């Protein structure tokens, strides 16, 4: 009988996979950690920008975007969290993927933006996007887009760097540069 793997199961598998590498090869992961720190700084900047808009737009929302399915970290998110020395949020097993997100409280998401899954930080509903466009100069809007691009680019570099480290480990290479 084939069992379907849930999002929750996947997170557990990613944690084990990446956690083992971080436990046994921490010294090889300095560049990965440095890039993750850069990503954090960019997300903090993004947060300052977005928080000027969400308190205006979100309280009247009738179609809250946050459901459980979106809250699970992807492989890259788990890597990022390990690289930042952060703990993966505790997920409750067996929840309905389409029910309101388990981290959604009266004050919005209880996970700090810098630790949320990438998809959560990348999602902009139409009302939020309109508000951003209408209340920012072209220069500020470009700054916002640039931040998103920076985060995506650095995340890609982090993954490439990590893949190179893992490849070296698999080939038994001792080079740690
Ligand atoms: S981001 Fe958009 S969909 Fe999500 S709560 Fe705010 S207004 Fe609603
Ligand atoms: S932003 Fe927070 S509350 Fe919304 S889906 Fe992501 S983790 Fe859940």
Structure report:
- The protein has helices at 7-24, 30-50, 54-57, 68-71, 75-83, 118-122, 126-134, 138-170, and strands at residues 104-105, 108-109.
- It has 177 residues and is mainly α.
- The protein has one domain.
- Strand 1 and strand 2 form a beta hairpin.
- The radius of gyration is 18 Å and the shape is flat.
- The chain starts with 6 loop residues before the first helix and ends in a 7-residue tail after the last helix.
- Bound molecules: iron/sulfur cluster (2 copies).
- One iron/sulfur cluster binds next to helix 4.
Order of helices and strands: HHHHHEEHHH
Overall pLDDT score: 91
Low-confidence stretches: none
Largest sheet: 2 strands, antiparallel
Through-space gap between termini? 45 Å
What would you call the shape?
A: flat
Short description:
The protein has eight helices and two strands. The chain is an all-alpha fold. It is flat and about 55 Å long.
């Amino acid at each position: 009988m084939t069992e379907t793997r849930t999002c929750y199961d996947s997170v557990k598998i990613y944690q084990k996979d990446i956690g083992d590498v971080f436990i046994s090869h921490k010294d090889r992961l300095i560049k990965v950690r440095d890039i993750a720190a850069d990503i954090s700084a960019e997300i903090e900047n993004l947060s300052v920008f977005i928080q000027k808009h969400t308190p205006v737009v979100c309280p009247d929302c009738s179609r809250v975007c946050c459901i459980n399915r979106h809250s699970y970290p992807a492989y890259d998110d788990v890597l990022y969290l390990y690289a930042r020395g952060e703990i993966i949020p505790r997920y409750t097993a067996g929840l309905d993927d389409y029910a309101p997100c388990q981290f959604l409280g009266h004050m919005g998401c209880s996970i700090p933006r810098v630790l949320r899954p990438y998809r959560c930080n990348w999602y902009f509903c139409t009302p939020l996007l309109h508000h951003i466009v209408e209340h920012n100069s072209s220069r500020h809007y470009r700054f916002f887009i640039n931040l998103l691009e920076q985060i995506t680019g650095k995340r890609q570099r982090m993954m490439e760097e990590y893949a190179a480290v893992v490849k070296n480990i698999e080939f038994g290479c001792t080079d740690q540069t």
